Input
Amino acid sequence: MRPDDPFNWSSGWRSPIYCDNRKTLSYPRIRTFIRQEIVKTIDENFGRPDLIAGVATGGIPQAALVAQEFGLPLVYVRPKAKDHGTQGQIEGVVESGQSVIVIEDLVSTGRSSLSAVDVLRDSGCIVKGMVAIFTYGFEEARQNFLDHKCPLVTLTDFESLLEKAIETNYISEGDLESLHEWKNNPSTWKQTSAES
Output
């Protein structure tokens, strides 16, 4: 937690806390648990798709693990089309009419994740939904996913993270008010913290 030296996000928001799911890849037991939970979540919520798609970059390794577990083809979606080679935005082979589950590591506003959904739909895929490891649970993300008619299911969320952080003494009870203020208004928290 760094309220006095916030993390900068690509969206321009500043955050007192950062959830780095990429680190889980370094721990085989945790990596395996996450893969198994994503597979179970897909089975329970969407059924078996034809294809697994990862969102670059954080969703790619998780998608690869999940595709391997299912024995399904894998693609990943770049944030923008390459300016060289085939100039594609989807890496891998997709066929019109394939059902797809999109894998993401983390959802904040949902904009970059849903951009990948749009690219897949434009290529003729039927996106059944998205599974992510974590979401901050922002209202903006909830609305973005509703507007895109893309169901989102996550393994965990901001409130669960805070519970665990308190339990393990990573943060104190006194930190909770500041964290909830940020979560309730992340786009203006930057100005509020700068004025303090």
Notes: The first strand starts at residue 7 and ends at 8. Strands lie at 7-8, 14-15, 51-55, 74-77, 90-91, 99-107, 126-135, 152-157. The two ends are 17 Å apart (CA to CA). The CA atoms of residues 97 and 179 lie 43 Å apart.
